[in-house]
Amino acid sequence: MPTISLPEGDAVRSENDSISRPQTPPSRASSFHSVQDRELPPIPTDQSPATPSASKAIADGIPLPIGADGLDQPKSSPEPPLTPTRTSSWNAPTSVSGQARGRVTSEALATNNAAGQVTISSMVFVVQALETIGASKEAKKRKQLSDAVQKAVDAIRETAPEPPADPNVVFEPLRLACTSTNSQLVTTALDCIGKLISYSYFSIVPPHVHEGQEQPQPLIERAIETICDCFKGDSTPDTVQLQIVKALLAAVLNDKVVVHGAGLLKAIRQTYNIFLLSRSSANQQTAQGTLTQMVHTVFERVKVRLAVKEAHAGQKNESALSVQIPHSDNDSTGNKDESISPPPSGDSGPQEKITLQSFENRKSFDDERITDAAPTTVNRNRKHLAGTYSDAASDSSESSQEDEDEVYIKDAFLVFRAMCKLSIKTLPAEQIADLKSHGMRSKLLSLHLIHVILLNHINVFVSPLSTIKSSSGGEPTGFIHAVKQYLCLSLSRNAASAVGHVFEVCCEIFWLILSNMRVMLKKEIEVFLKEIYLTILDNKHSSVQQKTCLLNILEKLCSDPRALVEIYLNYDCDDSALDNMFQRLIEHLAKIATSHVPITDVQLHAYVEQAQKGKSVSGYRGSSSLPPSLSTASIAAAPTTPVEPTFPQEFPLKKQSLDCLVNVLQSMVEWSQKDLADALQHTADMEDGGRDSLDNSHPSQTPRVSTVITPTATTPHNELANDSNGSSLDDYNELEKAKQRKTALMESIRQFNFKPKRGVKALIQHGFIESSAPEDIATFLLKGPIALDKAMIGEYLGEGHAENIAIMHSFVDMMDFTKMRFVDALRRFLQSFRLPGEAQKIDRFMLKFAERYISGNPNAFANADTAYVLAYSVIMLNTDQHSEKLKGKARMTKEDFIKNNRGINDNADLPEEYLGSIYDEIRTNEIVLEGEREASKIDFNAHTSGGLVEGIGRVIYNAGRDLERDAYVIASNEMANKTEQLFKSLLKAQKRGNSASGLPRYISASSSRHVGPMFEVSWMSFLSSLSGSAQESNDVATIRQCMEGFRLAIKIACTFELETERTAFVSALAKFTHLNNLSEMKAKNVEALRALLDVALTEGNLLKSSWWDVLMCISQLERFQLISGGVDEGALPDVTQGRIIHSDDASIKPRASISSQRPSSVRTRGRAHSTYTTYAAEVAEESRSQEMVNAVERIFFNTSKLNGAAIVSFVDALSKVSWQEIQSSGQSEHPRMFSLQKLVEISYHNMDRIRVEWSTIWAILGEHFNQVGCHPNTHIVFFALDSLRQLAMQFLEKPELPHFKFQKEFLKPFEHVMTNSTVVPVKDMVLSCLHQMLSARGDNIRSGWGTMFGVFTTAAKENYPSIVNQAFDSVRKIYRDRFGVIVQQGSFPDMIICLTQFSKNQRFQKVSLQAIETLKGTVPVMLACPECPLSQTSKGSAPVRTINDDPMVTFWFPVLFAFHDILMTGEDLEARTRALSYLFDTLVSHGAGFPPDFWDTVCHELLFPIFLVLKSRSEMVQFNSQEQVGLWLSTTMIQALRNLIALLTHFFDQLERMLENFLELLVTCICQENDTIARIGSSCLQQLILQSVNKLQPEHWSKIVTAFVQLFETTTANQLFSAIPTGGRNTSSTQPVASISEAATDEEDEENNSLAIGGLSSGNAEEADEEAHEGEEAMRNPIIAELEDYRPQQLPQQPVVTAARRRFFNKIITKCVLQLLMIETVSELFQNDQVYNQIPSAELLRLMALLKKSFSFARRFNSDKELRMKLWREGFMRQPPNLLKQESGSASTYVSILLRMYHDEKPERRQSKAAIEDALIPLCVDIIRGFVVLDEETQQRNILAWRPVVVDVLEGYTNFPEADFSRHIETFYPLSVDLLSRELGPETRIALQSLLRRIGEVKSLGVMSRGRGGRRGSELSVRNGVTGLKTRRLSHAQG
């Protein structure tokens, strides 16, 4: 007979023999039902009280929990729990009073109620049972039984009415009756035992056993054993089975005598066996319910005691009780004040990595002493349990109470561990395939009980008060840490099961773990998610049922905001986590949601109907307090295969995934609003007017109340504050840094796995590797993240560079091979990287490995060479034995391997046994990287572990294999093997780290700011899912769900200012409206439009640039409304497609709405050619619905509620849309202006905003009106201008304070339109608008005057008389009526500018002259205006703070500048003349009162710029031709120059500081190429000097002479010597003929500005003149060659000179002419005695040096005959050039001034007489000598030029004083004689005669002597006469 007993610590045993099971008779069945009705606990309700009373639980209903998986574990060293437990208060009872005691079964109550009130003293039912037993045949046969019965009856009668004192007397006959084979007798005995247990009769202590004595075996335990022994397997009668269940239930539920330990487990085990082995389905169901009730009672008792402890702790400490437990010394968390700490653990890494396989070998709690066979203990409950804590007076009593509490917790631990162990049993394939098999039903029931426990008693697991002592240290450990090893093992064995029922309950268990225990099981949850559930979700071979069930769980998770945020914080932000769980979860859901599932309308309808009826597509019953019936009948009744739905099975998955994603968005929104509500309110309060939302009437979304109780929610706040359960505070900044660091790490690893060198560089750069030292790099590669590709590690370490070799050596040196077998060491070595394929790299690895191995094991081999060769040999053997490439080829044998390794141990052989063992090991166990074993090598028949094996077994067992399920099982095996190998490598790495692991750091979410980063990493998945689902589906519900997702996503993006994300979602939603493709627009697109409008209403403050998409859709909607209303589509082009219509169809009626656009390249289409788009009528009707219209209107109306930044974004977007509308339909007769109208509307709505906001708004609106106002379509322009006028009227109603410019900016568009428009009616309308504003709002205008004058200024430039006259009339009206207001508002300069522009209008001279006269009259009006500070009637002037506050600058300067502007830019000569006259007249009239700084301004800003044209002709941009420029120069500028000099002389005292500027101006004029200007400039210079000669001071003379220096230097034609290339010319000919010493003297003297003049060689001069003459003759008469030359002779012609070269030559000639002009100017100046007398001698000498330099330059050029001829040949002049006039003129002036200075008797002059004489005498001698040698025939021109100079020299010398004259007679007398040989003119002859006479007088040569006085007077008269004659001669010569 097969029996199944609850395991004593191992598996459930079952026999394979099958036994036929007879059908239950009807009477027995009915009996069962009656018993079942009385004994089974009722189906619990949701409001189940948490009390320990069994009978009350039966009456009221008790919630029955569903459980979680766990793991069995070998007796290895315990590991600390991963996280400490947390206090949970959600499911704890609030009161423990009124607990029922000593409840009985319902049957006993029914019997006793019939006889009246029954107590334990009433033993009637016992007597009846004993009598029945005694009367039975069995009693008659068994004397022992009959004696026992009789003894019991006698005892009862003796003590009546009290029960017998010794309960053993009563129990013994019942025990013997239970051993009978008579089922009826057994039933009677069992019934009686059960009732006695219910009455707690067995709790009576026998008289011979005292209260404190140790009882060997409690009677209750013997009773339980007796009851259990009655079950003999499936052959036990059904009634007996039922009575067994009843009795055991009574034993477990008894609260007066509580059974613990082995007795409790026996009761549960036997009930479990009855469930499995009973042939009666009714009994199976009863046993299942009873077992559920038992488990519930065990945990309920723990809950009650925890509640009492919490209450006691609250009274004592006002906080939750904390049990302090010592920490491990190496606790990685560093928390010293945690309330619960793990016990000390063995070696492990600092951060333990967990995989599925690790659950097999890890122990979180040492439970060796807590065995299933623990002795049964009995607790007798006290009447007032709550009082035992509060009334306790000593620590000992509390300690005893703690021990008693632990007994209850141990019960819970034993029961839960038993359930977990039952669930992990490996089943044979035939049982896996049959759900009715014992093994499968056992597994299902255990899993369901785990689920029930977790569902209803989670507080037992998470409460920090729920502790149990471990076997090793006896220290308290949290309950969750004690059971998690079994829970996780159970879940890992079954979570991936291919059995649907198992998979479903495991999903529910996982959800309970995730929702309630994620703090304590952080790492475990990560493994389950990554390795199982997300993998199953992604696996295409997973069944639909599995995915549906898993999605149900994920949907719950997605609806829990806190859980989602904490998943993100603890996995995505944790660099020690295996993966980014939140991101992966969203990606997996998005992948399913975006999968393409074809579905017809019929199928969709079927799905909708089924969903509406509430039918679960997956077929799973969902979470419940009771497990489903697992009886064989129920399982048999269930359909083996689900009904095939009429729609694709993948469609519900797609729909469910979409639900999950939307729930995630909803959860994120809820979490974001948690903290932002107050912040937004605070921000709104700071806004003017409290604008916090666009639509106040829109109801705010009510946050969902999460039905999931998260660990953080159930933990008291003080625990969170103290970080007591491994949870840390939520520091947003730190977590974001951690997230960024993790992202950087993952990116660096990705780079390493692609290019190792680049990855290592990135890792060092980001600080993941401390430095570039080989040790640091090697440490990271060896102990770094598992994501590092080991193949790339091998490639990197195997490189031959020195750096790589050093890293590889450090890498190997970190491995410790001490006392390790060679093969084991090699395996460990090769697990750390993948060996590269290149032989040289392998060789380097093996060399280092051999060296490292021998260093740790020096006695292993003879030397390192042996280890090296053997390592190589083992690798080759491994490849030979296991390589797939060698299939079909002979493999290496053991003998071959031994032979290959002979003599490698220093010429000795290694033992053959040793080599043979290596061979065998490698052959059977390949050296391969963990996780890289091929899936094809998996043994499908191996019973490895859990659900994976079950799936394999079921697939093999089935005759017809399910290929999909087979593929799923294979994928699951691959997953399990990969994670197992991964975990093993991590465990090894942790052991090498030799440090204790602490609790994993868990972040409890509190900040709402995490939602932003969460959305950033997942928004693309959301977008693809929502947009893809909306595009594919036509289901209204799906579309609305997608739209809700869009709303939520946009809300998140807006809330956290995610620009890219917001733009993407809003643009996608806008595109989905299909308003640009009306033919494809459907009802779902209308939903998208509604969603978009709703977003605009609710998120308006945060949309920013996305307003454009919204407003573009609104514009397109208006177009659709017009088209659907009957307007021709051809007249309404699509704005987004950019098509402009040229509509000439007059039949199109005007309409209130406006049209759209098409590019101008498209030909005009009339109505006959218009195309009509077909669209759905219901869509059109919906678009015109009142709801849609109201939504649009609310958007615009509520703009006044937008905040400052939002309204700016809104206006900017609307302006862009408006411009697109206008551009698209601008050439249409009826252009679209919908958005333009809305702009005007919102301007009205928002005009009451504060000025700061309104200014920003108007900056955008004004620019838009500027664009629109200049559009060629007048319909648009007129509408814009009229709207602008109306807005201006309203705006001008508001007062404006001084110094603000709001009105000015508001009216700017009028000025822009007037300036840029080319349409006269538009300009006329602008002026009309301004005229209306002046008439209606003139008194309110402040800063707007400036803009108005700007408009009038622009109008003054027009060529249309109506425009100009209308504008001028308005200006004159303002001038007359509002002059004072203009001055007061600071617009006086604007008015002057306006009048100036009218003055410059050449086309209308009458207006121009009137304007000039008005300008002239402005001065007296201004000075008489009271508002003007310059007025005599003003009340005083405020102190000038800035230049803009200066009244001179504010009032005088604009008037003067007006005249200047007309003078410079006016085209009319009369206007310029008047302006020039008025300018200087005004300055002369009022300049006396100007301050010096204003005179500076006038000169530099007004006067001097008049002459800028002299420096740059580009300044005269107003003139179109050189003739006009010449006219301006010859008229206006010349007169201006004269007026300027007159002004300077008039106000010389005020302007003398600017003399240098005036001189600079004159220098510029004199240096002009225009002869007239140059002479006028020279004249003005003379005028300046002569009129101011008496006012000039020495510093003034210095400036004047400096000006002359600049003039002489500028006009010196130095280019004469560089104009011709010097290559063909003798350089010596370019030098003067004077001697070298003379030349040097000349240069030195010139540098020192001395008066020394170099001598002139008469011979050279004569030769030069002769050569020049000969050259001229040669040009006229060609020389006839002596030899024969018969070519025709041609006269030489001058070469053709280019225009550029001619200009160059002309500039040189101009300089020569100007030099002559300067010489003439100096000569004329010094004819004035005042000039001569006033100039200081030093300055006069500087001036003489200039004459000397000019003379020397001319003499040098004239003496260079070759140069002159070349210049002539190059076309410089028509004849050879010379500077004869410059030479003679400068010499004449020089001599005359020197002579005058020589004769001057003033002390200042006398001081320099010697120097004058030294310069004068050589010069005079040279002049006479040069004159004597001139040829009268060929050099007549030279003679005429020099004759006046010679006369001056002779007369000057003649008048020398007698002494000086006598001293130079020897020099001049020979020269005089030589002159007699020349043909002399009358003047020369008279001068020579006077000289000879004077010589005779001095030498007494017989010449008639004269009186001294008479002679002297004659000399003076002659001198004066000669001087006047000389001047006349010089003028004649120069002319």
From TrEMBL:
Biased composition (Polar residues): 19-34, 45-54, 84-98, 316-327, 696-706, 1624-1634
Claim: DNA-binding is one of the keywords in the record: no
GO annotations of cellular component type: COPI-coated vesicle membrane
Biased composition (Basic and acidic residues): 328-339, 686-695
Residue ranges occupied by any SEC7 domain in the UniProt entry: 734-925
SUPFAM superfamilies in alphabetical order: ARM repeat, Sec7 domain
UniProt record, GO biological process: protein transport; regulation of ARF protein signal transduction
Compartments, as annotated in UniProt: Cytoplasmic vesicle, COPI-coated vesicle membrane
Alphabetized UniProt keyword annotations: Cytoplasm, Membrane, Protein transport, Transport
Keyword Cell membrane: no
Regions of compositional bias (Low complexity) in chain numbering: 390-399
GO molecular function annotations of the record: guanyl-nucleotide exchange factor activity
UniProt protein name: SEC7 domain-containing protein
Species the sequence originates in: Sphaerosporella brunnea
